[in-house]
Amino acid sequence: xxxxxxxxxxxxxxxxxxxxxxxxxxxxxxxxxxxxxxxxxxxxxxxxxxxxxxxxxxxxxxxxxxxxxxxxxxxxxxxxxxxxxxxxxxxxxxxxxxxxxxxxxxxxxxxxxxxxxxxxxxxxxxxxxxxxxxxxxxxxxxxxxxxxxxxxxxxxxxxxxxxxxxxxxxxxxxxxxxxxxxxxxxxxxxxx
Length: 192
Fold this sequence. Notes:
Structural class: alpha+beta
Distance between the termini: 38 Å
Order of helices and strands: EHEEEEHEEHEEHHE
Strand content: 15-25%
Oligomer: single chain
Helix content: 25-40%
């Protein structure tokens, strides 16, 4: 079915709202079509907001030779080998600024770091229902290693996830300095 398809074109699709059912699964049809694309050698990349560990079970019957783009572009991951290929880290000065901003606003964040092919989520005391729900849902699935405490200085942050009331998050997002960091075309990131 894909014999005449241009194999020089890279197809990219988001996982969320495109392939997942209401129960966060892939239908049999989607699994069949993804395997069919892969077997035909069609370059197809799935992009997701999630980490590899949080969807590994979803793709247990799917074979993809191309890497997936994870955590809003923070890392590339190969499903077949279960290895991260490229990881983008938040620059130290940006990390320090974010943590100071969170502290000043009495907010918590899950701070993610990928070290030796393992995703770790560092966090302080969980202060609200949303944080507890997020934590418990991922803990049940063994999504990644949770560590209560600060991200060690020798590890690089890959992603911050903040779960709090909308007005609190909106307040820090309106910070002029944070806006300039976020709009500087990935300037605060370095590839590993």
